[in-house]
Amino acid sequence: MDEPRSAIDFEPTRAAGLERLARFLPQAGSAYARHRNRDLGPDRPASVSRLSPWVRRRLITEEEVCRQAIDRFGPWESGAIVREIFWRTYFKGWLEMRPRVWDAYREERDDALARTESDTKLGDAYARALAGETGIDAFDAWARELVVTGYLHNHARMSFASIWIFTLDLPWTLGADFFFRHLMDGDPASNTLSWRWVAGLHSRGKHYVATPDAIEECSGGRFRPEGLAEDPEPLDDEGPHPDAEALAWRGEAGEGPAFLLVTAEDCRVSSLPGLPASIAGTAGALLEDWRSPLAIGEPARAFADGALKEALRQAGAEEAPVFGVGDMEALIVAIEESGARRVVSAYAPVGPVADWLKLLEARLCERGIALQRLSRAWDRTAWPFATRGYFRFSKTIPHFVSAAGIPFVR
Ligand SMILES: Cc1cc2nc3c(=O)[nH]c(=O)nc-3n(C[C@H](O)[C@H](O)[C@H](O)COP(=O)(O)OP(=O)(O)OC[C@H]3O[C@@H](n4cnc5c(N)ncnc54)[C@H](O)[C@@H]3O)c2cc1C
């Protein structure tokens, strides 16, 4: 069987991300708006940017992509790509204000994983879905493409999730876990909330139902699956969303030499606001194993690993030690030996890295060392507006863009 190949290299460096952006830019205007749903396959030229792994890691920032697109096409013609970029910002802000949705996802996922062990029928169906052996042509091809390349087009993600939930009748959290383990751009907010959106749990009662016609059209005629669920009910869970909690931008101030802790959450270290002038020591923390109790896919791991190395290079600390999830005590020893009484790190949004940093913070606190999270104006401006649906949030995009100093008139 031919394995899917990716037409582009996903090299986890800022230079490669900027080069990818420069190549994509000429088609970021009306061509993107017209053709972005088309997915001709991993080995064919893309109608989309395939920038998400770099943007996810902030090797290039949302602000940079918006600035270049608006600068080139003006606010009207760049509208489609700018709105897509802001989906990421919206989802991050929404989850940040509802961390219980993330906690509930993790609990439900672990319950569902346990059931795949005890319930043979579920376990077999789950194994067939992961292996791409369901007999549904598009689904099986996408399952293999995801594992081999670490990337899927947005329309493939939507259709895959819809078939997983409504045709195969598998728990949505297991599908979200499969994506999160294998996507190079695997993101706790975009992934969890997109799966919830497809299921009808995000915009309550509105679910995404994949159809053979839409799949045939978007895949350029490569697939026309049969036997898809035709009129499924959206999933329903615990009732209304939890109320939005106030955002807590903790630990911004601080004096004296600091220990810089770099994670792969925000790799544009040199542009972090409030970076102390005096750094007593630097280390990296590679925390990908906390994405899931199951193994992380090779492309996803390699991209995160490379992105962290790039971030350390940017911080002028190429030789700094890198600690894994099980090395918290060794990291604390390194921090204490540096003599710093505070640790600074880029703000990690709700997700596995933030969970790990919370545990670290508690242990540091016992030793009288503070953890300070450096946050970006982009997030501080936009996240508080992610209280309801995306449509409402997107109306404020001109304000967000202007606040970032991007000229919005042409
Ligand atoms: C079930 C499901 C799971 C998903 N999981 C993830 C995930 O783990 N990580 C992730 O980054 N995206 C996720 N997405 C969103 C989206 O599919 C990808 O961001 C997009 O396909 C990336 O490809 P691209 O860079 O070519 O996108 P383009 O179409 O070129 O879009 C440009 C940029 O806009 C942003 N963007 C576009 N669409 C979305 C979106 N719906 N949500 C958030 N950002 C968006 C990305 O940064 C992307 O690079 C998921 C979507 C679905 C339906």
From TrEMBL:
PANTHER family: CRYPTOCHROME (PTHR11455), CRYPTOCHROME CIRCADIAN CLOCK 5 ISOFORM X1 (PTHR11455:SF9). The keyword Flavoprotein applies. Its cofactor is FAD. GO terms for molecular function: deoxyribodipyrimidine photo-lyase activity; DNA binding; FAD binding. The keyword Flavoprotein applies. SUPFAM superfamilies: Cryptochrome/photolyase FAD-binding domain. It comes from Pararhizobium mangrovi. InterPro entries: Crypto/Photolyase_FAD-like_sf, Cryptochr/Photolyase_FAD-bd, Cryptochrome/DNA_photolyase_1. Binds 1 FAD per subunit. FAD binds at residues 32, 84-91, 185-187. This is Cryptochrome/DNA photolyase FAD-binding domain-containing protein. One of its GO terms (biological process) is response to light stimulus. Residues 82-208 form the Cryptochrome/DNA photolyase FAD-binding domain. Keywords: FAD, Flavoprotein. Residues 220-242 are annotated as: Disordered.
